[in-house]
Specification:
Number of strands: 7
Helix content: 55-70%
Largest sheet: 5 strands, parallel
Number of helices: 10
Strand content: 5-15%
Radius of gyration: 20 Å
Shape: elongated
Order of helices and strands: EHEHEHEEEEHHHHHHH
Distance between the termini: 23 Å
Strand order of the largest sheet: 2-1-3-4-7
Oligomer: single chain
Length: about 260
């Protein structure tokens, strides 16, 4: 991959895309100031309708939802999100001055993943968000089925920002297209080598896919390739019925979303 030779970003770390939904300007600005850093992309919506509009084009990792908003409150907005996107890959946290008991029903029973009471404690809030997100991603990774990925999970935000220091939008898109083309061909070869049980060639291809995807911040493919490479090296056995379909599914998710993600970031 020649265009990658001059692009050497740091190893990708945890990136996150967060949508803040609150009708109060000061509250939105405060949360942005607390959460802002180079690994985080922050989006804001001043009401539930705007939040739903954002979710048509963005797949955030976390949605911070105020409860008391005019026209559409946080409960209604959450219900519409879950109704329209039953597999939506976002943690939805209530950020409110309400108590943890809404009538006789807790916020978690109503569908929220966590509750944060206002006023937010800045020194704890950011760490709490990151810890919950890390725990959630680990749980997803260990599940037996492939779930829908958020934008920041498919392509690391920090890696995109790093690559933009060296490449224009057009050049960056071409680099990812090159990755798509080369990886598509590599996966065809991988299928053939799985069928012939050629472990050395399988490991070589997996190693290349792992390296190229890590350089571009395509974490699901990089991590899964590394996992399969490790398991084959240690067991010297090939579980093609398990490995290959999952790798192909991850690649298909990337192909379906990367152009949109690059345009939005």
């Amino acid at each position: 991959m020649n265009k990658l030779a001059r692009l050497q970003p740091r190893h990708p770390i945890l990136s996150r895309k967060i949508l803040i939904v609150d009708d109060n300007d000061i509250n939105r600005q405060y949360l942005r100031s607390v959460l802002s850093d180079e690994d985080t992309e922050l989006l804001s919506a001043s009401n539930g309708q705007m939040a739903l509009k954002f979710l048509e084009n963005h797949i955030p990792d976390v949605i911070l939802m105020d409860i008391q908003m005019p026209e559409m409150d946080g409960f209604e907005c959450l219900n519409l999100i879950k109704k329209k996107h039953s597999d939506y890959p976002s943690l939805v946290f209530a950020v409110t001055g309400f108590s943890d008991d809404f009538g006789n029903t807790s916020f978690k029973q109503l569908g929220f993943d966590e509750l944060f009471l206002k006023p937010i404690k800045a020194n704890l809030f950011k760490d709490q968000i990151e810890n919950l997100l890390q725990k959630w991603r680990k749980e997803k990774a260990s599940s037996n089925h492939l779930l829908r990925y958020s934008d920041a999970e498919l392509v690391e935000i920090k890696t995109i920002k790093e690559l933009r220091k060296y490449a224009s939008q057009h050049e960056l898109l071409e680099i990812y297209k090159d990755f798509e083309s080369e990886t598509s061909e590599a996966l065809k070869q991988l299928k053939s080598h799985f069928e012939s049980n050629d472990i050395d060639k399988i490991l070589s291809i997996l190693h290349t896919i792992k390296g190229n995807s890590a350089s571009l911040g395509i974490s699901p493919i990089a991590k899964f390739s590394e996992q399969v490479e490790f398991e084959i090296k240690n067991s010297q056995t090939i579980d093609s019925e398990n490995y290959l379909p999952k790798l192909l599914a991850l690649f298909a998710k990337f192909v379906s979303n990367y152009e949109r993600i690059l345009k939005l970031n």
